[in-house]
Amino acid sequence: MNSIPLIRLVDVSKVYHLESGDFTALNHISLDISEGEFVALMGPSGSGKSTMMNQLGILDVPSTGEIYIAGKNVAKMTALERTHMRRDVIGYIFQKFYLIPLLSAYENVEYPLILKYKKRDTTGKAAAVLKSVGFDEEMTTHRPNQLSGGQQQRVAIARALVNEPKILLCDEPTGNLDRKTGFQIMDILADLHKHGKTVILVTHDPKIAEYAHRTIQLEDGKVVES
Amino acid sequence: MTDIFFDLSVRSVRLNFLRSILASIGIVIGVVAITSMGMLGTNMQLSVKQQLSSDVNTIMISSDVVRTSSTAGTPITSQGIDKSTLNDIRNAAGQNEVIPIHRTNTQFTIGSTDGRGSIYGLDPNDITKFLTIEQGTDIKGGSDVLVGPNIANNFNMNIGSRIKIGQDNVSVTRPTVRVAGILAARGFASDGINTDNAIIVPDTWYTDHYGDKDLYNQVNVILQNIDTINQTEAAIDEKVNRKTDIVRISDASSRLSGISSTLGTITTFILAIGSISLVVAAVSIFNVMMMSVNERVQEIGILLSIGTEKGEVRRMFLYEAFILGIIGACVGGVFSLIIGYTVVSAMIGNTAYFFLPESIIYVPYGMIIGIVVCILSGLYPAWRASNMDPIDALRNE
Questions:
Q1: Which positions 261-320 of B are in contact with A (Cβ < 8 Å)?
Q2: Which of A46, B99, B111, B347 measures 20 to 30 Å from B279, CA to CA?
Q3: Which residue of B has its CA nearest to A96?
Q4: Is the pTM of this model over 0.80?
Q5: Which strand (E) or helix (H) includes residue A41?
Q6: Which of A52, A56, A59, A97 best tests the B interface by mutation, with the highest count of B CBs <10 A?
Q7: pLDDT in tens, A10-55
Q8: Is the C-alpha dihedral spanning B304, B307, B311, B314 positive or negative?
Q9: What is the pLDDT of residue B1?
Q10: CATH of domain A34-60+78-225
Q11: For chain A, domain boundaries
């Protein structure tokens, strides 16, 4: 089993059919990412970073080629199986945090546990994870719009972590934060990597990319450096 | 355990409180409309039934053959049940009361006021078997009469008032009768004897003045036991109509069911009008649900991308529709009791049946229909939300 990497892309292309003609966002990409790697995905805008993240996050399926995540062929899974994989295997951290506005900070973290176990969390896990990312305990009942950007991103990281995913997908996690807070967030991610998580990070910022141990450079839908 | 999707729905309703309440008001109006219309119809049916069913134990027999004058071509002169037919009826009716009735219309004068009304000729012994005297006494003398309450009222009659019967004509002296008693109101009598506007005279007085001795317009059989109505009718039919149809036999129960089914149709019709308002309410709920979905596209995108099942997203929006329905149905239930009671008392004037199960059942019916309409209106918006593409939804600002 260990011979198959956690993530494997085999000749993956993604073509969007637009009115102005076909647009190839990903062009015959083959790539392996092993468990425990810290990968930065870089490239100019329009290079296919977002499309790549959607593929890795199984929010989308490739036009041609195959993607294996945790040993499973994404294209051959049912919609429900993909949903469950997003819930259990992958943790998402977004540039705009994307917390659920109607839920408190604590409930946002508890939410994936409810999705998985179909009941409220009584184990204290949500609170523990929230504490582990340095979130102020007194603010757990606050709604996202009452929190600062840094605090929101900590809640988002806690939410991504609470179901113990193998993979953390971070789409410009520091893009909406000031520099200092950005580095604090990166320190948290580096620490998570140290504890065995596979971290995939999209960024423009070379300073941020320095946290990663491997950089994949995309240009016009092709890997130019890996 | 509370469902987090239910919590989310409650919060969404609370967040858009005004909009949600306005949509619920539509449901309130719909529930009130169908509930109070249904109750109105039912109360109408019940009160009419009660009025009619007081004399459903009566079989009415009238002549089916028409006696014409012996000269061919002259018009019909009269019709009736003769003595031998009456005897046959008496034999067939057994223990039940048989009441032969003479009837015609007449003009009359009280003091200087002329009037017109029915005049019934009855055996004085038969009168109290089915009529109630409210004032005065039974017929004692040959020219004593009873009058209906409407005639008594309209002509200011009292016990002892004199009535001249017949058309005012200088050359003829009209017979005068004396009011011995005034009858209780019967309303619309289903035994065919409508006495409220009538004068009841002794049968001997009637045949003395109108002829038709031993020839009756109608014969009523009052049953001791309502359950024997069919067999008694069959017995009379067998005895009297053996060779040809001599008499027509009918009873109030068939008329009662005819009227009931007409009232049932009317009830259905007004219910249908009431449900138009529910259709309008459904449209407004649909609109609010679509607004809720469209405003929360990004939130739906978040939910879907972090692993929420489609069914769970659907559930969240159906809960929201359900909450709007519950609010509308509960408020509507309370209001329909108040408004239904007001409408029934204003239009029927009798609320005796309002709290009977047949009537009050419309409240839970209306509430359930209101909730179901809400959920149905939420189906498409919920389906739409759950089938969004998470990538597109996330990108939506």
A1: 298-299, 301-310, 312
A2: B347
A3: B394
A4: no
A5: strand A38-42
A6: A59
A7: 999 999 999 999 999 999 999 999 999 999 999 998 899 999 999 9
A8: negative
A9: 47
A10: 3.40.50.300
A11: 34-60+78-225
